[in-house]
Design a protein that fits this description.
The structure holds two protein chains of two kinds.
Chain A: E1 3-11, H1 18-26, E2 32-34, H2 38-42, E3 49-51, H3 63-68, H4 71-86, E4 97-103, H5 108-121, H6 130-134, H7 138-147, E5 152-154, H8 162-175, E6 181-188, H9 193-201, H10 212-215, E7 231-239, H11 240-245, E8 252-261, H12 274-286, E9 294-298, H13 307-319, E10 327-329, H14 332-335, H15 342-356, E11 358-359, E12 382-383, E13 391-398, E14 402-410
Parallel strand pairs in A: 4-5, 4-6, 9-10, 9-13
Antiparallel strand pairs in A: 1-7, 1-8, 2-3, 6-7, 8-14, 11-12, 13-14
Chain B: H1 5-20, H2 41-55, H3 61-64, H4 70-80
Helix pairs in contact in B: 1-2, 1-4
The chains are: A alpha/beta, B mainly alpha.
Chain lengths: 411, 81
């Protein structure tokens, strides 16, 4: 059963929807800014920059919606409404409509606000909606309620690979015949003093605090960590048969998925990049393609000193003689790292790249790391082959050694 | 010291509007929370919790089921506050 993409939605640090986000990405715009919240100074938070939403959900959602949902669910709902409309608001049997929406961290704002309530105002003041707001499946559940989906609603969690894994599980749902349409993606709303402090304690965040827009610089020799981002992205996947029968516009194909684990360390990626390479290989094999069919990779590339070269090695080992023919983009240079939302947003970028036949830039690569030896798209977009079928991989890797590769192709 | 019922109604209507999106003007004394305003039990519990804090009153769980209409709630709160 072939799986196609018919709708896209996002709310990201560089745009409130897909058209503005994609336009900003092609223009090489950074969404990283100083965090203007009193808690930054109040708690002496060690990192003061992040990729914050370009359009906050209170500008899009109703007041009761924002009150009843954690920000992570709000972002997912905003992206879902855009993606569903983009797909033409399909008429579909609710028992054939599925949802897979992930978050890496979950409802951390709700959890910690409720804990403040317990301490400051007493346990009896904790609101009854706290559990439905903080549970990690809350974004998936609210998307399910929004669409009335009844084939199944899932929230797969694999840290920074969550959004990509959601799309992989959605692919499985369609392939196995459980659903005709699956709405899938990821969301994250973790720009909060606690997660920032915790990531900073791991020494994973960039400390280039005086130059927010230059802090996320994957593959640059002076990269010093990732920049936390927030937002959500959603794709509408369908069986090709269903999409064609309803006359849907097919934006791209999802040809295959690869999922492996490193079995190595709770946070560090396995140094040879073997697990990452096996994920990419599996996706290409499932899609029935050869390496020569690949034109583009949207890399996980978070801008950490340790992570970027491992992925580059995996890509090089995979591609061999084809390395120079595959344009690699690291869009986290512009958006920051959306954690559980990253794999979904970067899938949107990958799909748009195939559709428009252009690979987005990687900004801030002033001095490319000489060891990487991959064909990196640097400060301006680069053209992909103008004709014929083209294919691209989106990589996402998560703490815990979760490796997910998604293989997309032009419509 | 009891609160005037019109003040309680106004503040309660604001809480209901904020939580549910129902127009505050629709929150009238004779309206039933469930039948007229279509407020589910989770939202009702949220409104009770917020009202307890707002009016500095205690609304026991066993009392909540007796608060069928907005007027019932206004009366209960006004007498407690």
């Amino acid at each position: 059963m072939n799986v196609v993409v018919t709708g896209l939605g996002t709310t990201s640090p560089i745009g409130g929807d897909v058209p503005t986000t994609w336009e900003a990405a092609l223009a090489g715009k950074s969404g990283v800014r100083r965090i203007e919240h009193e808690w930054v100074e109040q708690y002496n938070v060690p990192v003061t920059i992040a990729g914050q939403l370009a359009v906050t959900p209170d500008q899009v959602l109703s007041r009761p919606e924002t009150k009843r949902m954690d920000p992570s669910a709000q972002y997912a709902l905003v992206a879902t409404r855009e993606a569903w409309a983009d797909a033409g608001s399909p008429e579909v049997d609710p028992y054939r409509l599925g949802v897979v929406v992930s978050s890496g961290i979950g409802g951390v704002w709700t959890l910690l606000d409720a804990w403040d309530t317990v301490r400051d105002r007493g346990a009896e003041r904790v609101l009854p909606l706290t559990v439905p707001m903080l549970m990690p499946n809350s974004p998936a559940a609210y998307v399910e309620l929004e669409l009335g989906a009844k084939a199944g609603a899932h929230a797969v969690v694999s840290a920074c690979a969550s959004g990509a894994e959601a799309i992989a599980v959605a692919y499985d749902m369609i392939q196995s015949g459980r659903a005709d349409i699956v709405v899938a993606g990821g969301t994250e709303a973790a720009i909060h003093a606690l997660p920032i402090s915790a990531f900073a304690a791991m020494k994973t965040l960039s400390k280039r605090l005086d130059e927010p827009e230059k802090a996320s610089r994957p593959y640059d020799v002076d990269r010093d960590g990732f920049v936390l981002g927030e937002g959500a992205a959603i794709v509408v996947l369908e069986s090709e048969q269903f999409a064609k029968a309803r006359g849907a516009r097919i934006r791209a194909r999802l040809l295959g998925t690869g999922r492996t684990a490193d079995g190595y360390h709770i946070a560090a990626p396995e140094p040879t990049g073997d697990g990452q390479k096996r994920a990419m290989t599996a996706a290409v094999e499932q899609g029935g393609l050869t390496l020569g069919d690949l034109s583009h990779i949207n890399a996980h590339a978070t801008s950490t000193p340790v992570g970027d070269p491992i992925e580059a090695r995996g890509i090089r080992d995979l591609l061999g003689d084809h390395t120079d023919n595959v344009l690699v983009s690291a869009t986290k240079s512009m958006t920051g790292h959306l954690l559980g939302g990253a794999g979904a947003l970067e899938s949107v970028f990958t799909i748009k790249a195939l559709e428009d036949r252009v690979a987005p830039p990687t900004i801030n690569v002033d001095n490319p790391d000489p060891d990487l030896a991959i064909n990196l798209v640097r400060n301006a977009p680069a053209a992909l082959p103008a004709s014929g079928d083209i294919a691209a991989i989106n990589n996402s890797f998560g703490f815990g050694g979760h490796n997910v590769a998604l293989l997309f192709a032009s419509a | 010291m009891a609160l005037p019922e019109n003040e309680v109604l106004e503040a309660l209507a604001e809480i209901v509007a904020e939580e549910t999106g129902i127009d505050a003007a629709e929150v009238q004394l004779e309206k039933s929370f469930t039948d007229d305003l279509d407020i589910d039990s989770l939202s009702m519990m949220t409104i009770v919790t917020l009202a307890e804090e707002k009016f500095d009153v205690r609304i026991p769980d066993e009392e909540v089921k007796n608060l069928v209409t907005v007027g019932d709630a206004v009366k209960f709160i006004a007498n407690q506050a």
